[in-house]
Amino acid sequence: MQFIDPHVHMVSRTTDDYEAMRAAGVVALIEPAFWLGQPRTEVGSFKDYFSTLVGWERFRSSQFGIRHYCTMGLNSKEANNEPLAEAVMELLPLYATKEGVVAIGEIGYDDQTAAEDKYFRLQIELALELDLPILIHTPHRDKKNGTYRSMDVLEEHGCDPTKVIIDHCNEETAKEVLDRGYWTAFTIYPGTKMGNERMVDLMKHYGPERIIVDSSADWGISDPLSVPKTAALMLQRGIPEEDVKLVTYGNALTAYGQSGQMKESDWLDAPDIDRDQLFSGNSVLRNGRKTDNIIEN
Amino acid sequence: MHHTLHHILQKHLPAESFQWLESKLSTLNQDFKPRSFYLAFGACPRFVGKDEMTFSESALSGLNVAYPNFSATDWTTDQLARILLMTSLPTETNNKVLDNLFATADYRELIALYKGLYFLKNAADFVPRTREGLRTNMVGVFDAIALENPYPARYLSEDAWNHMVLKAMFMDRPMYRIYRIEERKNAKLADIFLDYAEERRSAHRPVSPELWRFIDGFLSSRARAALELTAKEGTPLEKSAAHKALHPNAESPSWNEIGRQATQPTN
To answer: Which NCBIfam families match (chain B) (predicted)?
Structure first.
């Protein structure tokens, strides 16, 4: 089976992860702009991070035969540094229109402060102006209220729920998010958030429509193989293959494909390019696969 | 604005796409704002597509005059549209405006930017940018500068040129596709490559048969020794390359032919 992991922070992952993901069938992934585990203090750090997402990381991913897309946005935590947030807002239009940018995100609330609310709304307006989907990060603390409030604000701005993905949903928030018409995404984290057993139960309850599974693997304990592993468990528990395919591939493609920046043909028609890049002898692979040549930097 | 490019795009693009490009150009001419330039540059693939272009003989000869070796690489509609936008910037400020774009560009944009520099009236001002670009580890971006592009041969100093050629060898690039690779060979480069060949021999690791091209014409006794060893112990292609360097007048395949064979994908 082929999979899309529509939420994974590859800048924090190793080449072992890329290899394992490819071997497990991941053909495309989306890397949402996020924070780095500690707050940035200069706008230049954002600029270089955004450039990495559309440049080096996209290239690095292609080396392993995985098509890389990203979302652009100012995350809610760092929205609380207002002078910095203002400067990042200036940068965003430049990056939001780049090729392969499939949404504005991940945006929303962390502590639900006034500053978070301000930059959340400004970025909703940017997404509407550029006609891009929106990826919503729902908070870990006070999740239910934070999730409902995010949807209220989106609706206040006139957003079409079919162009919004609400991520990090759980058993408590799923019903409301689905009922209000949004793409409903679940992060399968080892330990916290959603485990894959719970995901199977959710699938049995709600079916596959508008449901998306992702790993959100980052610099913390997380599993970049969450999507293929969850798919395997679903199949084992008797969920039909076509349903599994929707939640681990098709729905993400439909939701983010609305950007006009992500098409199935991007990876189905381009394997030769990737293979050529894979073996072309460069500093990511250090050529170990094919010859004994080592590239030193 | 580059008139040949403008003309070619007018002929190739569907009316709607060309109109989009024209409207962006006229906005930039009337009231130049870097932001409008960046947005137009970024949006090119969406509005003019990414189709590979084919050119008539007469169009090609015009383009080859403006840009030597133009016909050696593929060009897409978004690339040429982006380059046309670059050439519409006033030369007094284009360095600053493009610097910002280089710093924030995505993979595909970088390729168009580096392929387009030669078209600029003040192309010579972009040597530091080109040298910075050559530090990349993204193969496609490196290739956009180093392979078939007339910019390095015309504008890079000998040291900068040598750095580029060495890096191309380290990255296993097809050396024969570097424009004017033959004309810009030099004694210093031959020496560096000879050091490299010896270092690899000590490590029991092979070098590309294309390496000997850079020794050809600079036959020191040290070079001769290395070539004779290779002519004796190398693979058939290495032998052929070493023989060619040792006996420049003998009948043998061209360096380009050796290069093509050396870089054929092995399956």
So the answer is: EboA_domain
Domain ranges in chain A? Answer: 3-278
> B162: left (phi > 0), else alpha (psi -120 to 50), else beta?
alpha
d(C-alpha B204, C-alpha B216), whole Å: 23
The span from the CA of A11 to the CA of A31, in Å, is 9
Strand order in the sheet with A134-137: A3-5, A26-32, A67-72, A101-108, A134-137, A164-167, A183-187, A211-214
Q: Taking CA atoms, what residue in B is nearest to A95? A: B104
Q: Are A66 and A225 in contact (CB under 8 A)?
A: no
Answer whether A297 sits within 8 Å of B106, measured CB to CB: no
Q: What is the pLDDT of residues B225-267, one digit of tens each?
A: 999 999 999 999 999 999 999 998 888 899 999 999 998 765 4
Residues of B in contact with A95 (CB under 8 A): 104
Collapsed DSSP state (helix, strand, coil) of residue B50? coil
A95 with B172: Cβ contact below 8 A:
no
A44 touches chain B (CB under 8 A): no
Neighbours of A120 (CB within 10 A): 25
Residue A173 sits at φ, ψ, to 5 deg, of -105, -15
Q: Specify whether the CB–CB gap between B186 and B162 falls below 8 A.
A: yes
Instruction: Give the mean pLDDT of chain A.
Output: 90
Chain A residues with CB under 8 Å of B206 CB are 291
Q: Which of A91, A97, A281 sits opposite B171 (nearest CB)?
A: A281
Domain locations in chain B?
1-165, 185-267
With a CB cutoff of 8 Å and minimum separation 6, the contacts of A232 are none
ipTM above 0.85, yes or no: no
Task: Residue B137: list chain A partners with CB under 8 A.
Answer: 56, 282-284, 297
Distance of CA B249 to the CA centre of its chain: 30
Could you tell me the pTM of the whole model?
0.82
pLDDT at A24: 97
- Tokens 């071997």 belong to residue: A23
Give the pair of three-digit tokens for residue A33. Answer: 């702009």
CA nearest A248: which of A260, A236, A234, A237?
A234
Degrees, nearest 5: CA angle A288-A290-A294? 40
Which of B44, B98, B101, B138 is the mutation pick for testing A, counting most A CBs within 10 A? B138
Amino acid at A126: L
Other CB atoms within 10 Å distance of the CB of residue A194: 22
Give me the amino acid identity at A120. F
- Find the closest chain B residue to A62 by CA distance: B138
Cβ within 8 Å of A, B 151-170: 170
- Any CB–CB contact under 8 A between A286 and chain B? no
Query: Into which CATH architecture does domain A3-278 fall?
Result: Alpha-Beta Barrel (3.20)
Looking at the complex, does the CB of residue A55 fall below 8 Å from at least one CB of chain B? yes
